[in-house]
Design brief:
By secondary structure, the protein is an alpha+beta fold. The chain has helices at 6-19, 31-40, 106-119, and strands at 23-27, 44-48, 51-55, 59-68, 82-90, 93-101, 126-131, 145-149, 155-160, 163-165, 181-188. It is globular, with a radius of gyration of 15 Å.
């Protein structure tokens, strides 16, 4: 977690404890810190390319994919961007969970955004967590409406076919914190099977 170490992890832990979410996306957090937070709050988790997803019941993940996004030049493995995708079931119904951290450089971000947009098409209910300078570009034409955003617009939660409850605006988890970011939601709107 950068140079902030345990202090940043404590702030992230406090945000998770305050929100009590079913699904969490972390950005700019190392795998060790993601593991520590997942262990502390009894989440299952996966990490890849600048993002981590954490989840708990009623969400059950069956498969995880780290799909590379287009790059203009060959990159070192730790510099590449990818779309982290988890195939999940909530109350027995399929849901896709995505997390992606876009590059700050405009040209690279545009290529990554195009790659991500091509991969999130479909009708399956989904949650997409994004971090990066998207500006006005979104995923509405892919059926993913923005349901929450940080005050600076850098982090967003998009949903398709799922009602969500996002943390209130004043929750620290909705904002960038010491170069680390967290977004969290409670999953609603997929009723348990009768």
């Amino acid at each position: 977690m950068g140079s902030e170490g345990a202090g940043s992890r404590r702030r992230l832990a406090a945000a998770i404890a305050d929100c009590d979410p079913d699904v969490v996306a972390l950005f700019d957090v190392g795998a060790g810190d993601a593991l520590a937070l997942a262990t502390r709050f009894a989440y299952e988790w996966v990490s890849g390319s600048g993002a981590a997803l954490l989840w708990r019941s009623p969400c059950a993940v069956q498969a995880v994919h780290d799909d590379p996004l287009p790059a203009s030049v060959p990159l070192l493995p730790f510099d590449r961007r990818s779309l982290l995708r988890a195939e999940a079931r909530i109350h027995g119904r399929p849901v896709l969970l995505y997390a992606v951290r876009f590059s700050a450089e405009r040209g690279a971000c545009v290529r990554e955004l195009r790659g991500a947009r091509s991969r999130v098409q479909g009708r399956t209910p989904a949650l997409l967590f994004t971090s990066g300078p998207l500006g006005r570009i979104g995923f509405d034409d892919r059926g993913l409406r923005t349901v929450a955003a940080s005050s600076d617009g850098e982090m967003r939660i998009h949903a398709r076919g799922i009602a969500t409850a996002a943390p209130p605006a004043e929750t620290p988890g909705r904002h960038r914190s010491d170069h680390n970011a967290i977004v969290a939601v409670a999953v609603h709107g997929i009723p348990p099977p009768q």
